[in-house]
Structures are given as C-alpha cells and as structure tokens.
Amino acid sequence: MATLELTIREDVAAATARQPRRLGVLFWIAIGWMGLVFAVAILADLLPMPSPTDMDMLERRAPVSVEHWLGTDGLGRDELARLIYGARISLVVGLCAPMIGLVIGGALGMVAGYFRGRFETLVVGSMDVLLAFPPLILALAVTAFVGQSILNLTCILGVLGIPAFMRVARAATLTLARREFVIAAQALGATHARILLRELLPNVLLPLVAFFLLGVAITIVAEGALSFLGLGVPPPISSWGSMIGEGRESLDVAPRLAFFPAFAFFLTVLAFNLVGDTLKALTDPRQGAL
Amino acid sequence: MFGFVARRLLYLLPVLLAVTLLTFLIASLLPGDLAYVILGDQATPENVAALRHDMGLDQPIWWRYLGWLGHVLQGDFGRSFRTGQTVLQAVAERLPVSIELMLLAEITGLVIGVPLAIACAANSGGAFDRFMTGTAFGMLSVPTFLSAILLIYLFAVELHLLPATGYVPFAEDPVGNLRFLVLPALTLALAEWPGIMRVLRSDMIATLQEDYIALAKAKGLKASRILFVHALKPSSLTLVTVTGINIGRLIGGALIVETIFALPGIGRLLVGAIYTRDLIILQGAVLLVAAGFVMVNFIVDLLYAVLDPRIRHGHA
Amino acid sequence: MNGAPLLSVEAVAVELPTPRGPLRAVDGVDLTLGTGRTLGIVGESGCGKTMLSRVILQLLPKKARLSGRVMFDGQDLARLDRERLRKLRGRSLAVVFQDPMTSLNPVLTIGTQLIETLQEHLELDAVHARTRSAELLAAVGIPAPEQRLAQYPHQLSGGMRQRVAIAIALSCEPKLLIADEPTTALDVTIQAQILDLLAREQRRRHMAMILITHDLGVVAGRTDEVAVMYAGRVVERAPTPSLFRAMQMPYTEALLAAIPKLDAAPHTPLPAISGRPPDPTRPLKGCSFSPRCRYAVARCHQEKPALTASRSTDHHYACFHPIQLAVGVDA
Questions:
Q1: Using a CB-CB distance cutoff of 8 angstroms, which residues of chain B are in contact with residue C101?
Q2: What is the pTM (predicted TM-score) of this model?
C-alpha cells in the first residue's frame, strides 16, 4: 500500500515529461493474457486435466511429460492443474480486495473532497494514521489472530487499500468540484447527492478504475507475499504465492516448481500494471486540461 | 517557516496519538486471551483469573490504554513474557541489522538507478532509454519474494557463491557480515531502483530543456560535466524526497526479505511476535515502527519545504 | 583585412516537423561576416533570427533538419564532428543569451561557471583560472569581483548577471560573439550600458559580433551591417549607414516607424505594424509581408521577390516596389 502512495507522490512531482501513450501492441497482449487467465480460472472445472489435489506418491517431482504437462510437485500433484486453480485464488483475492478499497475509499474521498472542512481533515487524518502502519505487519497480525481464511485475507487487504483510493478520489474531486458544470448544477438547485452521483461520479470513476487495476496488481503481490510465507491463504488451498513458497524447498532439485508459478505470477501482475498504467496515462491529461 | 513547522507539528501529534490508540486496540481486541496464552497448559480458570488480575487485564480498556500510554511516555514499553527482554532491548538488538540492510539496499538502489537515469535522460527517446524504461516498468511487477528466490537460485543454489540465509554481526566478522547481506540488499535494491530511475530521469529530462544547459553546451563543456554537474544538481530534489520516503518505508517493511534470508531484524521480530502471540513485543515494536515512519515522513516534508524556497529565494 | 570572411552562411534552411506540417523556421539565408566586423540581425519574434543563431552554434533541436553550409574560419560547422565542434564552442564561438536569469545555472556559483570555461578551453590551473575570472568580472564593470565569484546568480541584479554572461562569453577570446537579444530582458536604463560594454569589448578585441534584436534603434551606430529578417528570410541587407539613409523595404520602414521617438509630441500614437507575423507552417505563395504591406499590389501576392541589389552592390532587398526612404532627413 505504501507503493501506491509512492506512485501518487511521484506523479505529482514529476509529471513533466509524460508523453500520451497510445494503446500499443503491448497493451493488447496484456489484455489478452488477462483474458486467458480469467478464462482458465473460471472454466477450471471444465478443463480436461488431472485434479489438482490428486497425489501420486510414485510420481513426485516428475518432469514435464504428456500426462503432466508441467510435471508434478513434491506431493505428486499435477502442476498445471494446480497452476490453474491457483489462478482462481489469486484472482479472487486480487479483485475483491481492491473492490473494498474502491467502494469505501472512493466514497470517502469524493465526499471529503466535495464538502471539505473538518470532515475532510478527519478523513485525511485517519487515512494518514492507517498509512503509518507497515501494511504487511497489520495484515499478518490480523490474520494470525483472527485466523487464516480467504475472507479474512481479502477483508484486511481491502481495508489497507482504502487510503490510496481515498486519495485518488479526493484529488479528482478537488479539481472537478470547482468546474463550471458543478457550479451550474448547484445554481440550478441540485442537491448534493445529485451532484455527487450524477456530475462528479462519472468523471471520478475513470481515474479510480485505472487505479483499481494497479490496485489489483499490488494486491496480487501482497497476497502472494503472505502466501509465500505460509501466512496468506490457509493450506491446503494454494494460490500462486504458496506454490512459489513450496517450490522454494525444491530449488536445488526441481526449480521449475517455483518458476512456473513465478512466471505466471509475474506475467499477470505485469499485465494489470500495464493496463492500469496506460489507462492512468489516458485519464491524466483529461484531468489536467481544465 | 517557523509557522510552517509549528503547523505540521500540530498535525503530527494527534496522528501519533491515534497511532498509539490503534496499536493498542489491535493488540487488545484481538481474540486470544493473553492470560490463556501465557499459562498454556496450566490454564485453569482460577489461574487465568489470577493472572489477568495481576496483569491488570480485568480493568476497563480505556484505563489500560492510558496506563500503557503513560508507561510509554516514560520510556517503558513493557517486557516480553516470553523472553524476559524489554521491548526497547529487543528492538535495540534488532535495529542495527534492519538499518544496515536498509542503508545497503538504498545505496545499491541509487548506484543502479542514478547512472541509468542519467544515461536515459541524456538520450531520451532513444533505444536505450525506451529499453530501460520498459525494463524498469517490468521490474516494478516483480515482487521482492520473486527476486529473492531468483537470486537465491542463481547465487546460492547454482553458483554457490553466496549464502542463502544467515547473519553475523559486523563487529564480529565484517566480511562475513557483508556476504550475508549481499543477496538481501540486492533483492531490495531491485525493487527500489525502478522508482529512483523514473523520478530522476523525469526531472533530468525537464532540466535538460533549460536555457542554462543550452549555454553550457554553447560554452563547449564536456557532455559528462554538463550531465553530472550542471544537470544533476537541480534535478535531485524529488529524488532526495523519494529516497527519504523509501528509507522510512524500509524500516518496517523489509520483513519479507528478513524472513526469507533469516536476518534478525525488526521485521522478523514482529513476525516472531505474531507467531508466538507475544503481544507486548508486538504492541511496542509496531508502535515504534509506525511512530518512526511518521517522524521520517515529517522530516521529509520539512526537508522539501526547506530545499524548495532556497532555490526560489532569489527570483525577482 | 580582406580575404575570406570569418563567417559565411550559405543557403541555410531549417525545417522542423510539427503536428501541423513541416515548419521552415529559416528559409534560405545567405550572410557573411568579416573578422572584427559587427552584423545586426533585426526582426520580429518568430522571424527566425534566434533559430539562425542556433544554426551557427549548431545547437539545433534534435528533430530539426538543416540544409546549406555554415562556413566558419574555413570549416563547415554543419559537417564538423562533435568533438571538434565542442572545442570551437566557447573558445572561438561564444554566445550571450537573452535572459541571464535562465541562462546562468542557478545552483552553481558565478566563479564555477567562469572557471570551468577557462579550464576546459585554456587548460588553466585552478589558481590562474580564479585570478583570470576576477579580472574578467572587473573588465565587464562588476564591482568587488572577488566576492562575486562565490555568489549565486540570484544574488545579483539583472544587469550584473548579463555582465557575468558577457564575461563568460569573452573569457576565451572568441573570434565571433553572438548576442541574442542581450538587453531585451533588462531595464531600459541598463540596456545602453550593456550595449556599450559589448561594443567596447568588440572593438578592443577586434572580435566579430552578431547583434540580434527586434529593435532597429539598437543596431543604429553599433553595427557595420544590418540584415532585416522576416518569415525566415533576409528581406533587406545593407551597411548600416546605407540602410538608414536609403531604406528600401516597406517592412524596414515600418520597423523604424514603430520605434518610439523621444522628441515626438506626447500621446502620439505609436504606428504599430498592423496584422500578425505569418504562420510558418503555411507559407504564402507571394511575398510573406504582402498581407501587411501598405504598398502591396497583385504581383506581390503572386510571386516571391528574390533578394537582389540594384544601384549599390552591397544594399540588397527583396521587394518588387522598393521605397526609397531617406531616414534622418525629417528627424
């Protein structure tokens, strides 16, 4: 989450030499990869492959073969199947957690940026307090005490993302709230709710969505890191992170067990970063051109 | 200027206070009765009740909070019931390791990022620039634990050059100390250099458009001098602030690296406290780390305000 | 002092790609300058005079395309390799930019900016470079030069900063000094001082100088030859006395009329040139000045007049209907 904060500060301070990025080949490749990952994650049950939980003790750490396209892991389970089911977990957490941030943080930010005053100071102050804590420690502490589960993990990662979304929403609202169409709506007697929902929200939504995609990337990384340490998704459920963590033990004999999930992980995070960054670059000049 | 500092301090204090409150609440409200945990096998209802009374756990929460806060302000952060160490002792033991790691990581990140940024800015738009910018972007998508296992695989497993885990204090064995810290510092540096490079490159590209750079070229100065003396200095402002923020973040945030490489730093202290349910340590250490982060941010904010007007100071 | 001129700009054109089409910032310019002589280049903003100075210094923007030759001291600067160009710049070729606040590096001391030039080109050691720098500052009229060396540009006034910029330019005894609007950013009261300083140093060092300005008044009496530029081309060129004595171009006449006169009656309206400079991305078929020229006829809108000379061989102009104006007659 601190990385999100850093991204905002960086862009504020160094917004000079940014060329408008067009939707190039890389963008579409990234979309393609995201589509592929989504597809296999959703259709996992329908795909013709061995079950990810079937342990074949005779075929432990087997190399790539026709039966097992990516080999087997330390307990004889099919690596490709585990990879595909792992995608599910990583995506579920990766998408749902930032949703929490988007909805709550976005709402808080918009209201704070619109009404200003003490409410704003209160909101910004509480976010600063939340940001002061090393986020992984907070996540660890909560999951360790409340128990490891996908729900808990998603909730805490979602809560940790609220400050960043708040900032984006607030920044966007601050620049928009003073523009003519808002003043015109106020002059026409529109209520605050109406202005927030009909005038501001559509415009604030764009940067928020761009930021959401970046948030997905960061959440996948955070969940991956926690699961890598065995402190994220509860075993025996495995996400890519826990697969990499398990693969760590076999680095000397079968490094592929760590590197296959690592590669999938990297590509997915990269894809979300790329798409999110491109969208952010597209919405930026629009915001600046008052 | 003085007013600025005063105002920032005024804002800082409630934040710090809220940090203590939140820390205390998290530690206290989480399920898992402390007395049960401590007594373990001997947790009969009577013993639990007695211990709770002894530890003051049966008092109302706001009372306990104030008591704890009072102690904290006097420098008493409590004592671990597991190890018998005071929180301050435990932190003081681990702090040098974390600081050494953080400094090495940041310096390595700068050593990689700054020259690359300068090289890219000097030929902005060229093949090298586009390649490096792309690589930096890609690097940002590689989380620390991935770089860690990659480096461990390369250097420890395949090449047998460096140890995968372990630590020895500098005072005992300087060379060994550095050997143990190379991979962890490099792992962190790989995560730091893209941010550093982007920020400096951006500022330098802007600086290189300035008139005084044109004049420096017109004076026939060497390109290296123009880049390193004329362009680098005015472009460093954002870099300095970013480095400050990074250092503040790294103080508490290197826990993944510390865990992977088994370094006895503050990050591992916190993780260990979570594992062993050592709430006293957890409470105290989290408070120190969070407070440290707030202070570092505060200093960075001040630094920015100090550096900025001085440059603008002479403009008519 | 005859023989080959020190500087010879031959059929130079600069084209810049822009989203709206290629922009000819400089559109076929020929100029020569002899050793120790002063050339004034006069024109409105956007006429290409600054771009021309960048051509001579070979400091064009990356995307610019240059055609033509720039002969300096027997070498074509446009075809010289980078290292030799670098050695020439600052040493034989020097420049003073318009705004000393932005042309001096704000985070380096005056001393550093002087000394580095001396050390680079003359290879002086630190002590000698320092002494020489103080001498240079004194020569350009800066009091307490020793103290100034440790100061930063923002600690000096505008006029002093420009003097520093001039000192830097003169430090290695250049053969040619280009002064690009050296006084435009300064107070009126200081302008004359700076111009006099430049003229004095030019005479003393027998240095060639190009004085670029938008003000005809600046070049009168301070230059040997004047070239008037409009829309990327030279439209009139003559030895200074001839120019003022017998102006040919309506544009030059208009420029002169636009200078406020001290002895005019109060509230005399300033005869500004009506219209705007042409859009360089849409070059006109005919004479570039025709839309604003009060003498324009049909032919002016159809054909582009070439730079020709009649009567005296060194007075060139590009006009179909030159006016023969005797300036100073009715002053």
A1: 315-316
A2: 0.80
